[in-house]
Amino acid sequence: QAAAQFQQAIQVAARTAAEAETVAHEQLQKATNAVQAVTGRPFSRRPERKHLPSRGVTRAAAPTEEKKPEKKAEPEKGEDEMPPGMLTKEQLERMRAAAMAQRGDTPKETKPDPSAPAPQPLPSKPLPGAEPAPPPPTPVAQEPEIVTLARTVFFQAENVIAKSESIRGMHASATAMAEQVALAAESRSAADQVARLKGLYAMTQTVHAEVQESLAAMQEPFQKVLEAEAAHAEETARREAARTRIVEEEKQRLLVQRELAEVGKAHNSVRDHVKTYRWDAALAELKAGSDALQSSEARKAMAVLIERYERMKKLHEFLIRRINVKRFRWGWGQGPAAKDIIAANENVLQVTGQTIPWPDVGLGPMVRILRFYVDDKDLDRSDRSEQQLALAIFYLENELNDPAESLVREMRERYPTLHGDIDRLLPF
Predict the structure, then answer these.
(1) How many degrees, rounded to 5, is the angle at CA 157 between CA 155 and CA 162?
(2) What is the pTM of this model?
(3) CB of 184 within 8 A of CB of 69?
(4) Nearest to 192 by CA among 201, 202, 180
(5) Are 178 and 9 in contact (CB under 8 A)?
(6) Burial of 312 (0-12, 13-18, 19+ CB in 10 A)
(7) Who has the most CB within 10 Å: 99, 176, 252, 308?
(8) Alpha-carbon torsion 263, 269, 270, 275, what sign?
(9) Regarding beta strands 140-141 and 354-357, do their DSSP bridges make them parallel or antiparallel, or are they unpaired?
(10) Contact 339, 333 (CB under 8 A)
């Protein structure tokens, strides 16, 4: 019964160790994937020593000195030239010094000659065979923190996996021992197996505690790895969003620039209709061009242009109505040949004894006719202000900028409530 209890306890330890091993494998895989995602490089269990480029001057290698053959000691000058039995001056000085030393006399110091040049220090030379001083150590680039954290997770997971495998081996041994206890013929043999099982159980508990300790130790760095990965993903997403926004803004800028140019082209193309007073044709072209625009800026510019042409069309309609109500005496022509303007419709202008199609009415006569009817004192204030604004637009479209600007100044003083329309429709 004791053997079965020990064997069961070891089995429980093996099962929980296997669960810890599964967790360790999963967390290790996530940690290595996080390193790959953040750094763009596979995880390495060993620290990589990345040397930063040195900013100092690279020292050249010291040239290898060739060994020169040793020179034989040359005899003192004059020794070979002395006849046999004769002593040189140097030999006599050495013999005198030896004799004085034997008697205990101290040789007198020779005073230096003040006129003699001072001795100069010898230049220092490197000793033969001496190696040059080693260069300063190259700084090593520090690894990203996520790599250091993942390495901690790796070693703790490796410990969990190894110890879990050890517990599985103990469980296999415990199972075999329990079977031997059940088959033992002698109680003494069974007691020995139980004692061994007890020792194996104690060892299993120790290793199991180490498994749990390693599993617990890897949790904090593992969580920090996940946080670093999430922060990197968030920063990457933010940068990608910023890059996308910049790209979209540039695309939108180019679109606005292109479409505003198209509005300008459309404006130039319909100006010929102004000269012939064909307002419906001009408006049809502008509205067709507006449908193809995408940007709000270009649509707004086209809407202003359409409103200007609509106001000029209404000005022409106003002119036709007023001509049929009130004739313009001597309004057509100059001097004795001047004729009255007596009637009009959307196609022709009728003067005394003559019918003139609107396209044949020149800009000068048209301005004179418009000024007569727009400045009519019989008009109420509201109608006059609207027609004067349309007349200023007509001036501008026909490149009569000075009269247009002068009329706008007059309207700003006389009609304060009209400032918004003036600012929207005119550049003055």
Answers:
(1) 95
(2) 0.57
(3) no
(4) 180
(5) no
(6) buried
(7) 308
(8) positive
(9) unpaired
(10) yes
User: HSE on the CB side for 386, CA within 13 Å?
Assistant: 15
Structure tokens at 319: 């002119």
- Give residue for tokens 């065979």: 129
Which residues, including other chains, have CB under 8 Å from residue 358's CB and lie 6 or more apart?
Answer: 276, 277, 346, 347, 348, 349
Q: Tell me the one-letter amino acid at 54.
A: S
Amino acid of residue 126: P
- The amino acid that residue 422 corresponds to is I
Q: Where do we find the tokens 């220092």? A: 124
Question: Per the structure block, which two tokens stand in for 421?
Answer: 């329309």
β 50-51/348-351 pair status = unpaired
Relative to beta strand 50-51, strand 140-141 is antiparallel
Helix (H) or strand (E) holding 354: strand 354-357
Strand residue runs (E) in 205-338: 328-332
Residues 6+ positions from 246 with CB-CB distance below 8 Å? none
* Single-letter code of the amino acid located at 302: M
What are the pLDDT tens digits along the chain (428 aa)?
777 888 889 999 999 999 999 999 999 999 999 999 999 999 887 776 554 454 444 444 444 444 444 544 444 444 444 444 444 556 556 656 655 555 555 555 445 555 545 555 555 555 555 556 666 665 556 889 999 999 999 999 999 999 999 999 999 988 888 887 777 645 667 788 788 888 888 999 999 999 999 999 999 999 999 999 999 999 999 999 999 999 999 999 999 999 999 999 999 999 999 999 999 999 999 999 999 999 999 999 999 999 999 999 999 999 999 999 999 999 999 888 899 999 999 999 999 999 999 999 999 999 999 999 999 988 999 999 999 999 999 999 999 999 999 999 999 999 999 999 999 999 87
197: exposed, middle or buried (Cβ count in 10 Å: 0-12, 13-18, 19+): buried
Pick from 156, 170, 162: nearest CA to 217: 156
Name residue, tokens 């299993």.
204
Residues 6+ apart with CB under 8 A from 67: none
One-letter amino acid for residue 276 of the chain: T
* Alpha carbons 324 and 381: distance in angstroms, whole number: 21
Q: Using alpha carbons, select from 278, 295, 264 the residue that is nearest to residue 358.
A: 278
What would you report as the CA-atom Rg of the chain, rounded to the nearest whole angstrom? 56
